[in-house]
Give the backbone structure.
Amino acid sequence: MAERPVLLIADDDDDVVRLLRLFLRPLDCEILTARDGEEALAVAQERLPDVVLLDVMMPKRTGWEVCQALKAMQRTVDIAVVLSTARGDVKDRLTGLQLGADDYLVKPFNRDEVVKRIGALLDRRRRAKAPAPPPGTLSENMLFDRATGLPTVPMVLDRLKEILIDQGQIGIVFIDIEQFESIEAEYGWAFFDEFLRRVAEIVAAEAQPRFAKSVVATNVVGGSSFFIFFETKSRPRDPSLDMVANELRQKLLESMRQRFPTMQQGQIGFFVGAVCIEYHPPIRLERQIYHGMQIASDAVRDEEQQRKRQLTRELRDIIRRKRVTTLFQPIVRAREGTVFGYEILTRGPAHSSFRNSDMLFAFARETKLAWGLEEISLDEALKRLRSFDFGDRKFLLNLEAEMFEESEFRIHDMVAYFSEHRGHFVFELTERAAIEDYGVFRSLIDEFRAKGIEMAIDDAGSGYASLEAIAALAPDYLKVTKGLVSTLAAEPIKQDLVKMLVELAGKIGAKTIAEGIETVEEYETCRDLGIDLLQGYYLAHPQELPATGDAEVAESLGSSQQLAARGAR
């Protein structure tokens, strides 16, 4: 007979607890209760329920605090957490999402909604539970990184302590992926997960012949760096540890370039550092190992600084010689599957380190070269746009908030050109730093609106600052952040947040654009939730020329007939 699922209800209101007990009877759960946050945390740690339903406003500890604690501990991280509260606005749901909550229920409860949501989480927990491993095996308490299949460092710590005590020393190699943020930003999370898997395979395969009795682990779940731990006493002194680490770096470069030939050579890079640490009995073992990991990672810092200086010189040369490329990524109507318009993207030269737009502009901000880059990007985009027949298409241009205050930008030819072609252009506002005075900023925005230029808020739903911007600036478009779109089909909290953004857009007369669509599930879920416009690699990659005719549009999307057919359902 299958074991009954266990559910913990944590709420200081007895009437709410009785109501939830009544609602949840059809699920045949063993129900535990707690009246405050501290009791809820203690019961959850002791009984490990399948689902914990937390009232946000509880005595001693809030539901948010309990959620954060449960998701931070290995023993309780897999418990499904549902937050319940009468406060159901976007900010509260974002807080729950950021703390790791699995779902959200708003009071007063609806019986069918409670049963449906809790039942779905119980089903997910039932599918996730695997047969327990034999006692005494390493896998008994091991937590693996989902993308790479490798254990995290805390999960192999006992083995590392054994090596350090037995051998009197331990070797550590640190491997870090260069520009990992730009790879994921350009190619998407699905591609980057595959990239990580391949790196992990190579590291594990190369570690065995190079390092005695090696243990390979990731730094953290979802991270982009790896550690190889190994015995050093049985290892020959020649070649040197640094030489072997460099050979590993070269092997990674060669293998990854062969595996991903479509990536530019400059986009694939690795930092590798190595160290050997001695055992010191007075110092706590864990501290010795983590200190050694820090030394190994510090060994690559000089290399990273040299790399930064090289990149700065490269960026200055790009700006001086105006070596940027303008591309256009289609934005598609969710229902019809037809092209609504294009986002204008700027990339560095094809074989440079700055092929990715995000890295290009992020590094320019870091090195105080933002306006120099923005100016040549505007010039290049304007040159391309002058030759186009816009038809009924819209063109979105991404701009940092600080650019609106630049006097050079406000008198740039691009602004005059946009004004001459009213109704075709949208400035997409990105907040990398907080806007200090929305009243003053709104007056700046109104200057451009008076010229017929529409406004979009980028990364809507990414935090409270963007919600404040929406309220203060009343944009024409809300771009739903990639963080909400990713895994949207499987996460009810994200779905609720997207619904609320869609409703908010409707109230202010704005259209919604979901970016970062990479899978059919993301596409269909966004469409079903009422998103107006879609953008992402599942639909089309950035292209050199925007399509203008119907045949070109169909060809640019590749699957436009499929999209139209789905939209008609």
Notes: Residues 189-210 form the longest helix (22 residues). Confidence is low (pLDDT under 50) at residues 132-142, 549-554, 564-569. The two ends are 42 Å apart (CA to CA).
